[in-house]
Design a protein that fits this description.
It contains 4 helices and 3 strands; from the N terminus they run H-H-E-E-E-H-H. The protein is of the alpha+beta class. It has a domain at about 40-80. A 3-stranded antiparallel beta sheet has the order 1-2-3, with no helix packed on it. The longest helix is centred in the C-terminal third of the chain and has 16 residues, at about 110-125.
Length: about 140
């Protein structure tokens, strides 16, 4: 992953921000440089080894995870473990973009809390389409 001089985040333009977060690799490198994601986990794996590397994994949202280098072990853990991103279901880039835009546009944090609460409400109470006595028409012309 590329390492480059980082402009002060407070003074970043949208173009500079996009350069720092344009790819997943750039985003992870950026997060490491501002200490949101560690360069290596400090806690050992469940087998007591503390010899980690960041490996690609297409099956997870982040595309990378920590892998134990010990051949007999090979345990893995999320690069989000123990970080600000640990409980988020959003991509790391999406979380960072929301924070950046929110700070640049002075959007109050309550707005993001309201959106998160709305999402939870919609997911826990999905709308019912159709049912007894109701016809649901689907337009498939598009």
């Amino acid at each position: 992953m590329a390492h480059y001089p980082l402009p002060p985040v407070d003074d970043m333009t949208l173009r500079e921000w996009n350069m720092c977060t344009s790819t997943l690799e750039d985003t992870i490198s950026f997060c490491q440089s501002v200490k949101l994601i560690p360069y290596r986990p400090t806690a050992p794996c469940s087998n007591g080894h503390n010899n980690w590397y960041m490996g690609k994994c297409s099956k997870i949202i982040d595309g990378y995870h920590w892998r134990c280098r010990v051949k007999e072990c090979r345990l893995s853990r999320s690069i989000r473990d123990g970080t600000f991103f640990a409980n988020s279901k959003l991509e790391i880039q999406q979380v960072l973009d929301l924070i950046f835009i929110g700070l640049k546009e002075s959007i109050p944090m309550t707005f993001f809390v309201d959106i998160a609460n709305l999402r939870v409400s919609l997911l826990s109470h999905p709308g019912i389409i159709g049912g007894v006595g109701h016809v649901a028409e689907i337009d498939e012309s598009a």
